[in-house]
């Protein structure tokens, strides 16, 4: 069942004509995150990942910084615009959403400004992840 945040996200993506695939059962994605990524407490331990990138932002600039962070991954050829990613929130959205990374750039400002939760962008190969925290931290890492 969709939450009100899911409905808002779907409506926004449809307005922008962004192609996405709704994932109503995200347990497989969460299981892969828990299996393949190292944790310290309840958070991914990015220090144990390869090719890590970190940015701390503030509430006023988080949308801008998140978009620029992802663009820098594209510019450095760490990621490609046609990479398939899965967006998962940690509490307010019930569904996952599969996008192309380039389309995710268009919707990131909405996600971080309108849905107050931790945001996970898992690459379809389950080897790369972007994390945008509710505390305005932006992290990226790659597993071996």
From TrEMBL:
Organism from which the protein derives: Marseilla massiliensis
Stated name of the protein: Uncharacterized protein
| Superkingdom, taxonomy of origin | Bacteria
């Amino acid at each position: 069942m969709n939450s009100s945040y899911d409905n808002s996200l779907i409506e926004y993506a449809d307005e922008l004509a962004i192609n996405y695939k709704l994932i109503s059962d995200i347990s497989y994605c969460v299981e892969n995150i828990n299996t393949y990524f190292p944790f310290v407490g309840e958070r991914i331990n990015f220090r144990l990942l390869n090719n890590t990138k970190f940015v701390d932002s503030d509430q006023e600039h988080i949308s801008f910084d998140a978009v620029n962070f992802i663009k820098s991954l594209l510019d450095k050829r760490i990621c490609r615009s046609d990479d398939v990613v899965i967006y998962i929130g940690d509490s307010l959205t019930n569904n996952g959403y599969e996008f192309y990374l380039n389309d995710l750039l268009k919707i990131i400002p909405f996600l971080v400004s309108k849905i107050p939760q931790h945001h996970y962008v898992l690459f379809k190969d389950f080897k790369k992840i972007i994390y945008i925290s509710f505390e305005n931290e932006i992290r990226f890492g790659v597993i071996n």
